[in-house]
Design goal:
Rossmann fold; Alpha-Beta Plaits; 3 domains; 7-stranded parallel beta sheet; alpha/beta; 16 helices; 35% helix; binds adenosine monophosphate; 473 residues
């Protein structure tokens, strides 16, 4: 990756908003909202963004990132000009709704700022009517924004600011082409603010193509560490792998990443877990790209409970909502251990880090204690009792549609087919991941069989499709 090196590292977090070039009305509004101090990402981004610089900012939900892009775009806004002056692209409707709420709160300081949210799953007609009444700010998902641009119902000629929020998730959801098509329709003279929790390759590509001399803003997220509960269990050679199943059935996490030191151990563990009816998949170096995509899609969309991986294979993996990390083997490198467990407990959620250690790994455990400056907390395997007699099943099931980017299929088309003709609600549908030749869509377990039948019987984009499940039903 060749993103520019960070210009701002951990920023002072105790700064108030008073030091920023904001209007007195905005400062008063922030005061009223109880925003007395900037969050670290705000302190790092706002001085640069308010100077009009393009940004690549690393921030997660809950970090205050919305205000970090909202204040600059509001500062550039002229409410007397009836034209769309800023566009925020978000991966999902839920995020677009959240961003809109926060924008409305922050925009209270200015008169009559009109904000319109444009996402799929809502009739176009109503959105067109809102746009006709004039909008200053638009928040939406890439597919639907592109629809409006193609129909000529949205005009971006007066745009000052383009925001790509959770850009990595938009890439995950197959929105690369839609994002670039939208960005190409914005005026060249503009400010672009890109927010992303991780930097997969696609982000670099987008940054190179659409940002001008971007400043990279990064905040060290050490504050996550205390939210992770670490427990160590002593195991023997014979009890190590069965102990993983015991932990899973006791804690019943929805998504668990289990780290092994070798590929062989990954394979053995997956066989053992599957034998006990726990849905587990292995991720290791030699998988073909196609297999890797399929494994990651199933884990990320919560239709596989456990991903068993080596450290190398898990590089670049961006999975939010990971309830637990299990160290099946202790890493000899304490830094790797901390990196592994840092994958749980993200974005303000509590996480569980469970480590299995045999006597000959106690030296490595000691190094971890020293590195973390905290003693390890030991529990006994005997405490682990199955918390329920129900099998541990993932909440979602992945349907694989044979058809992808080559067929010009977009996430919105699949969502449209399921929420339109097939009659499901948006909440019953999970992640949609479009790859070159096929599309993975997660649906709630309870509707999986029927949803597959309905898709097979119906049409997507006017064409019949073949659909199968990747899991046993
Ligand atoms: P976000 O990460 O943008 O979703 O923001 C998380 C929450 O923090 C939202 O409820 C914001 O209203 C709130 N928030 C953002 N900035 C600040 C701040 N400087 N002080 C207090 N609360 C804030």
């Amino acid at each position: 990756m060749t993103t520019p090196s960070p210009t701002t590292a951990a920023a002072p977090s105790k700064a108030g908003f008073g030091s920023l070039p904001l209007s007195p009305a905005m400062l008063a509004n922030l005061q009223q909202l109880g925003y007395t101090e900037m969050t670290p990402i705000q302190a790092a981004s706002l001085p640069l963004a308010l100077l009009g610089k393009d940004l690549i900012a690393q921030a997660q939900t809950g970090s205050g990132k919305t205000a970090a892009f909202a204040l600059p775009l509001l500062a550039n806004l002229n409410p007397r000009r009836f034209a769309v002056q800023a566009l925020v692209l978000c991966p999902t409707r839920e995020l677009a709704d959240q961003v809109t709420v926060e924008l409305r709160r922050l925009a209270r300081a200015q008169d009559n700022v009109k904000i319109v949210t444009l996402c799929g799953g809502v009739p176009l007609r109503m959105q067109v009517a809102s746009l006709e009444h004039g909008a200053h700010l638009v928040v939406g998902t890439p597919g639907r924004i592109l629809d409006h641009l193609q129909r000529g119902t949205l005009d971006l000629q007066a745009l000052n600011t383009l925001v790509l929020d959770e850009a990595d998730r938009m890439l995950d959801m197959g929105f690369f082409d839609d994002m670039t098509s939208v960005a190409k329709q914005c005026p060249r003279e503009r400010q672009t603010l890109l927010f992303s929790a991780t930097y997969p390759e696609g982000i670099d590509k987008i940054a190179k193509q659409f940002l001008r001399e971007p400043q990279q803003v990064k905040v060290e997220t050490k504050q996550n560490a205390p939210k992770i509960e670490q427990r160590f269990y002593e195991v023997t050679r014979a009890s190590r792998l069965p102990a993983v199943a015991q932990l899973l059935l006791h804690f019943r996490p929805v998504s668990t990443l289990a780290f092994c030191n070798t590929k062989q151990r990954c394979k053995e563990l997956v066989t053992l877990l599957q034998g006990q009816g726990i849905s587990a998949l292995a991720l290791y170096g030699e998988l073909e790209q196609r297999e890797r995509d399929q494994v990651l899609a199933q884990f990320a969309n919560r239709s596989c409970s456990v991903l068993v991986a080596t450290d190398v294979a898990s590089r670049g993996l961006d999975i939010t909502q990971l309830e637990a990390v299990i160290n099946v083997d202790i890493s000899p490198d304490p830094e790797v251990h901390v990196h592994r467990i840092g994958r749980t407990g993200r974005a303000g959620e509590a996480g569980l880090a469970l480590s299995l250690a045999s006597l000959d790994e106690m030296g490595a455990v000691g190094r971890i204690e020293q590195y973390q400056q905290q003693p390890s907390v030991w529990h006994s395997l005997d405490e682990l009792k199955p918390a329920s007699s129900e099998p541990l099943l993932p909440p979602m099931v992945t349907l694989q549609i044979l058809g992808g980017r080559k067929e010009k299929l977009r996430p919105g088309d699949v969502l449209g087919a399921l929420t339109g003709e097939a009659g499901y609600t948006r909440e019953q549908i999970g992640k949609i991941h479009v790859t070159e030749f096929c599309t993975f869509v997660a649906v709630e377990r309870a509707i999986a069989r029927e949803a597959m039948q309905r898709l097979n019987a119906g049409k997507i984009k006017g064409r019949s499709v073949k659909v199968r499940t990747l899991q046993e039903l």
